[in-house]
UniProtKB/TrEMBL annotation:
Region Disordered, residue ranges: 100-119
Xref: SMART domains: TPR (SM00028)
Domain of life: Eukaryota
PANTHER family: KINESIN LIGHT CHAIN-RELATED
Alphabetical list of Gene3D superfamilies matching this protein: Tetratricopeptide repeat domain
InterPro entries linked to this entry: TPR-like_helical_dom_sf, TPR_rpt
Protein's organism: Ceratopteris richardii (Triangle waterfern)
Matches recorded under SUPFAM superfamilies: TPR-like
Protein name: MalT-like TPR region domain-containing protein
Length: 667
């Protein structure tokens, strides 16, 4: 072989390598479906040209579902939505892909002309391998046969076929991508494939493919519930993106058409922004799961800026994105940004869909919730009524019912009692016994009448609510509403009614599944015991208090303070003085670890403990406890406690202690 022939072949081999690298650019840029922070809609997967709807994330047992279950109170409403929107790039992808294939074909032919027949056979085999890999990489993510075939084909790649490891890296990346989007055990394989792809691309410097490898690893870790690991991978991915040389999409395609070499080590700006959007969105999800809400908000703000770059201003997709993002930010208490995004979404929606559309109703419903959170009840009610009118025009009865129930809270805040009951009566008439909203509306109506001191009407609605419960299964929302009504009766010192409702709520939670429901049922047992104590029924209260204590004693729970206290009050009625002291001492100890404990509760614990010590002739301890009571009453006015009486009791304990010591001295 001549020297000139050697250099020509070397140049063709280099072009061959570059085209193989570019051939899988499509695979590098199409990332798996991320978890976004944006919506409570069903999950949407878009891969290639196909769309696949499924709801596996919210199934019981799914690691991500389990992780969501333990989010803070506001985040528990949050659901996961996987989606992709690469439609804007399809022309560029198609152009690039077709160019890659034609360029690679030319290069292969050139090699074959210059090499031996054996080399020609090897080149054809290599071409066939690449074509098969490319086809399998573009297969449907749910096509298990294609996935299995790709796994087998990867094993056939020889070092001589792929000296730089580009085919292998691209194949591993595709396998990881498919596994990350799967709803079965393949997700666990995905992390291994992503790590293998990472090892290949690490040697080639910062690239979109390397960033994608880290992103997929983060996505898989998130779905497996390993959120801290996910954050670490996302930081790696973000770091890579900051080091990539970015070229405008038009310049990228023009350069690629003329010379593959000119775009090696670069990345299209549109692809980069799409990848950054994926990273920031998953960052936000992970930070939410870790309870790092302030940081999550920062990442969500970044997704907004990136989405604005990727979508055309005024497009309906951008309006939908604004709405979904506003819903998430509301849950994170970023009401200012949420309101701003709702306004932008509404402007787009009115221009694109016109007035009285389903989309407008959704925005106004969310604005109503935001204004309610901010205490702007008039504005909230106005948005509720606007949304309600639209849903009525569209014939969406369920939405109208939901808004009527929500309107009750606003009307009560505004002390518009008659209107509140009227809205609830609409719900009652539009629903049947056994429907959750039917029962909830009856309970809320009873509560309104209690607030206006109309006991007869309150009892009437309450009776109807209890009858309606016989027609439906366990519902935690109904149970919470019953508990709310129970508290209203308790505040009015109607303890028998309060106990009946509390017991019914407890029975509902007893039927619900899950640890959270079990803990709530145990707490309600304690609450029921407390109500019975106020009703003057200590013997009836003790079994509920004891059961609650045994169920809650193994988990951190602030209700234990009150259970200890009321057991301490109840036990003397059945001659268990020592047990009474033990529980009151435990209540005293719990005061230091509990939050939001009222001064009256602190006074009650020390005062009753002093009495219990006195009954057992522990006068030293009685004196010390009573001194604490006097000290608190000197600084605070506490209902049902008199400083004068507390001081008199302290003097009595001191006198009894002195007499006791004198008797011991004389003996």
């Amino acid at each position: 072989m001549s020297v000139s022939h050697f250099y020509v072949s070397k140049r063709l081999r280099e072009v061959n390598r570059q085209v193989k690298f570019a051939l899988f650019s499509y695979g590098a840029h199409v990332t798996p479906q991320r978890q976004t922070l944006l919506s409570s809609r069903s999950i949407l997967i878009t891969q290639g040209d196909g769309e696949h709807h499924y709801n596996h994330v919210m199934e019981k047992g799914n690691p991500l579902h389990i992780q969501l279950k333990y989010l803070p109170v506001l985040a528990h409403q949050f659901k996961i939505n996987f989606h992709r929107s690469l439609d804007a790039f399809k022309q560029h992808l198609s152009h690039c892909s077709s160019h890659h294939h034609s360029e690679y074909s030319t290069s292969s032919s050139g090699n074959a002309d210059m090499d031996s027949p054996n080399s020609l056979g090897e080149a054809k085999k290599k071409d066939s391998l690449i074509v098969q890999l490319d086809a399998l990489c573009k297969a449907d993510p749910d096509d298990q046969e294609a996935l299995h075939a790709l796994e087998i084909l990867v094993q056939e790649i020889k070092p001589s076929d792929d000296p730089e490891g580009l085919l292998l890296g691209a194949s591993y990346l595709k396998l990881a991508t498919v596994c990350a989007s799967s709803c079965n055990e393949n997700i666990f394989k995905g992390l291994s494939y992503a790590q293998k792809a990472t090892e290949v691309y690490k040697n080639l410097g910062p690239s979109l493919k390397l960033a994608t490898c880290f992103y997929i690893s983060a996505l898989i870790c998130t779905r497996m519930g390993e959120t801290k690991k996910a954050v670490a991978y996302l930081e790696e991915s973000d770091s890579v993106m900051k080091r990539i040389k970015v070229t405008s999409c038009d310049e990228y395609c023009v350069a690629l058409k003329h010379d593959v070499q000119s775009v090696m080590g670069e990345a299209c700006d549109l692809f980069c922004n799409e990848m950054r959007l994926e990273i920031q969105s998953l960052f936000g999800t992970a930070k939410m799961q870790l309870g790092m809400h302030a940081e999550a908000i920062i990442h969500i703000h970044k997704t907004v800026k990136l989405k604005q770059k990727l979508l055309q201003a005024g497009s309906p997709d951008l309006g939908a994105f604004y709405l979904d993002t506003a819903e998430t930010l509301r849950l994170l208490n970023d009401h200012k940004t949420a309101t701003n995004l709702c306004s932008k979404a509404l402007k787009i929606i009115l221009k694109f869909y016109g007035s009285s559309s389903r989309e407008e109703a959704k925005v106004r419903s969310l604005l109503s919730k935001i204004y309610c959170d901010l205490g702007k009840y008039e504005e909230s009610l106005s948005e509720t009524d606007s949304a309600r009118k639209i849903w009525m025009q569209l014939g969406e009865v369920d939405e109208v019912i939901s808004l009527n129930v929500n309107a009750e809270r606003l009307l009560v805040r505004l002390e518009r009692w008659t209107e509140a009951v009227a809205r609830l009566d609409e719900v009652i008439e539009a629903t049947r016994k056994g429907d959750n909203f039917h029962t909830i509306a009856l309970v809320l109506a009873a509560r309104v009448f209690l607030l206006v001191r109309n006991s007869d009407m309150a009892h009437s609605y309450c009776k109807r609510a209890l009858e309606a419960l016989e027609y439906q299964g366990p519902c935690s929302q109904t149970a919470h509403t019953l508990l709310l009504l129970s508290i209203q009766y308790e505040d009015r010192k109607e303890f028998d009614e309060a106990a009946t409702l509390c017991k019914k709520a407890k029975e509902i939670f007893d039927q619900c599944l899950g640890q959270e429901a079990a803990v709530t049922a145990a707490e309600l047992e304690g609450k029921l015991g407390c109500i019975l104590m106020h009703a003057g029924k200590p013997e009836e209260a003790i079994p509920y208090l004891e059961s609650s204590f045994s169920r809650l004693n193994c988990v951190p729970n602030q209700d234990l303070l009150y259970i200890h206290f009321y057991l301490g009050l109840a036990y003397p009625h059945i001659q268990k003085l020592k047990e009474s002291v033990q529980h009151l001492e435990a209540a005293k100890g719990a005061l230091s670890t509990s939050t939001n404990v009222s001064t009256s509760m602190e006074v009650a614990v020390h005062s009753n403990l002093a009495t219990a010590y006195s009954a057992l002739d522990k006068l030293d301890e009685a004196v010390e406890c009573q001194k604490v009571v006097v000290g608190m009453l000197q600084k605070n006015d506490v209902k049902d406690y008199s400083l004068k009486e507390a001081e008199a009791r302290l003097h009595y304990y001191i006198r009894e202690l002195t007499l006791s010591k004198d008797r011991v001295g004389k003996a």
